[in-house]
Amino acid sequence: MSVAELAREVDAIEGVKAPEEHTALVGHAEVFSRLTNQADRGRLPGGILLHGPRGVGKATLGFALVRYILEKTSDEEAHRIAEQVGGGVHPNIFVLRKKPKDSKAFFTSIRVEDVRDLVHKLQQTRGRAGSRICIVDAIDDCNASSANALLKMLEEPPADTHFILISHRAGRLLPTIRSRCQAHALRPLAETEIAQILNKTDATVEQVQQALALAAGRPRRAFEALLMVDNEVLQRLANWLQSPADSSVFETMKIAETLSTQKNAMQAGFAREMLLDWIATENREALMPGEGRSQGEQLRLASANLLWEKANSLFDDADTFNLDARQTLLSLLDAIKSHAQKTQASAMPANLE
Predict the structure, then answer these.
(1) For residues 122 and 139, what is the distance between their CA atoms, to the nearest angstrom?
(2) Are residues 39 and 147 in the same domain?
(3) What is the enclosing helix (H) or strand (E) of 162?
(4) With 80 as the cut, is the pLDDT of residue 262 above it?
(5) Which pLDDT tens digit goes with each residue over 144-195?
(6) Residue 177 shares a structural domain with residue 252
(7) Which residues span the domain enclosing 111?
(8) Model pLDDT, residue 284
(9) Domain count, the chain
(10) pTM of the model as a whole
(11) Cα–Cα distance for residue pair 330/328, rounded to 1 Å
């Protein structure tokens, strides 16, 4: 594979269009309407932060907004704009992503030299009539130096230039970056909307239904699930998460062992999302309003919060220090099982032995 073929996205899914190639937006109608109304009034801010779960369609919405802005401000027809944006050749559009290191791999972050190159391009005379837009996909990939360099541009943006920042974890961004952007939260799509996207593929009805069960409202996860239909280890993990308190040591070790092998890299990434989703759901359910919290409910909420922190810490350390994937998964699965057992025990009536 050549560097040119790698140049779109570090996490591209084979056979699935890049966000800039989509010409129709499914879902997120409220946020898109809000932004286009601002564009119609000439009130679109210089910095826009689109944040939400990974794979929910933030970049796709960002490029839909790009096309809308160019249709309003340039002198070209809509179909011509879409062709150039989709091909990555429109002179007024700048996309900041991790760049290819060579023909086999990408750099691990958006580097400060990448931002400096963007600054240089923005200082040049614009290539065409209309606004200029820079999409950073994703701002989470910036290291400390590149984030600070980008912040300087957000503080003093070039004339008639908009920055659209994509973030999967907005809470970890520099507060100064967040404060200089108008933030819009994107939520998971409805199952009917995900089905609308998947029905455009060659998948069978049964495959679509299986993918919907694993998608959790995220188009990207739906496409990933289609590639892993009938995947045994993911089904075993899904079954394990149905009742972690009662899981066997053997089954737990088997799941961790299978997911940690190199050939199951895609499945391991998908499993990570499944685990984080389970913990997030546990936190939401523990926060459900009531007439007053029992001691057991308070214990469940505290334990769920600690579990969320532990999961993110384990994954961050594993990524940063290249730690053993099997041990990382075992530690998290054991923590989930312990949480489930404590929650189960605290929910029992006090007089029940």
Answers:
(1) 18
(2) yes
(3) strand 161-167
(4) no
(5) 999 999 999 999 888 899 999 999 999 999 999 999 999 999 999 999 999 9
(6) no
(7) 3-185
(8) 86
(9) 2
(10) 0.84
(11) 6
Q: For residue 269, count CB atoms less than 10 angstroms from its CB and return exposed for 0-12, middle for 13-18, buried for 19 or more.
A: middle
Distance of CA 43 to the CA centre of its chain: 27
The residues pairing with 248 across neighbouring beta strands, listed in sequence order, are: none
Residue carrying structure tokens 């685990």: 275
CATH at residue 52: 3.40.50.300
Domain boundary among 126, 152, 185: 185
Is 198 inside a domain boundary?
no
Out of 127, 160, 185, a domain closes at: 185
Query: Which tens digit of pLDDT belongs to each residue from 286-321?
Result: 887 665 667 888 889 999 999 999 999 999 999 888
The CB density around residue 337, as the number of other CB atoms within 10 Å, is 18
Give the CB-side neighbour count of residue 324, counting CA atoms within 13 A.
Answer: 6
Cβ count within 10 A of residue 345: 11
Tokens representing 151? Answer: 């912040």
Give alpha helix (H) positions in the chain: 3-6, 29-40, 58-73, 78-87, 112-123, 144-155, 175-179, 191-198, 205-215, 219-227, 232-242, 249-259, 265-286, 295-321, 325-346
Query: 177 Cβ partners below 8 Å, 6+ apart?
Result: 49, 139, 147, 150, 151, 154, 165
Among 109, 88, 99, 89, residue whose Cα is nearest residue 3: 99
Instruction: Assess whether 266 and 150 both reside in one domain.
Output: no
The answer on 129 and 57 residing in a single domain is: yes
- DSSP codes, 86-150: HHT--TTEEEE-PPBSSSS-B-SSB-HHHHHHHHHHHHSPPSSSS-EEEEEETGGGB-HHHHHHH
352 falls within a domain: no
Non-local (6+) Cβ contacts of 339 within 8 A are 244, 282, 303, 304, 307
Q: Identify whether 97 is part of a domain.
A: yes
Residues recorded for the chain: 353
Residue 33: inside a domain: yes
